[in-house]
Specification:
This protein is mainly α and 139 residues long. 47% of the residues lie in helices and 0% in strands. The radius of gyration is 21 Å and the shape is elongated. This is HTH cro/C1-type domain-containing protein.
Length: 139
């Protein structure tokens, strides 16, 4: 969580500063949202990797051997709890003769933001894979 600078200005009447409290609350909320988004991204990434391993009929030990790491390290990667770096994702991809693509897209509307009467599923971006992993046609 990043620190904020004190805000000069309005007081809440109890000796505290209104702006400072609001700044703290906003930074805390955005930090929490970022952590949740990171967790979702990690789960999607590890599901994609697990799907690719299953498609290739490879075990965790097979991947560990190709990467030159222990099976325990592969289990850490696949747990979804690991804060993976781009380099570690690149190492996995290189060992599988695969590639990693990271694309920033506009966020899909949240269910409450969709048109009335339509289910949230109709507002999923078309570029989202239907399966837990995506295969690129450009291999």
């Amino acid at each position: 969580m990043r620190a904020h600078r004190p805000v000069r200005g309005a007081h809440d009447g109890n000796g505290g500063r209104v702006g400072a409290v609001m700044a703290w609350r906003k930074s805390t909320e955005s930090g929490h949202a970022a952590q949740e988004a990171g967790a979702r991204l990690a789960r999607r990434t590890t599901a994609s990797l697990a799907g690719l391993l299953a498609e290739r009929e490879m075990t965790r030990k097979d991947l560990a051997d190709r990467m030159g790491v222990s099976p325990g390290r592969v289990s850490q990667i696949l747990s979804g709890d690991e804060n993976l770096t781009l380099r570690s994702l690149a190492a996995v991809a290189e060992s599988l003769d695969a590639r990693v693509e990271i694309t920033f897209l506009d966020a899909a509307p949240r269910p409450a933001e969709g048109p009335a009467g339509e289910s949230p599923a109709r507002h999923t971006p078309q570029s989202s894979p239907a399966l837990p992993y995506a295969r690129s046609p450009h291999r």
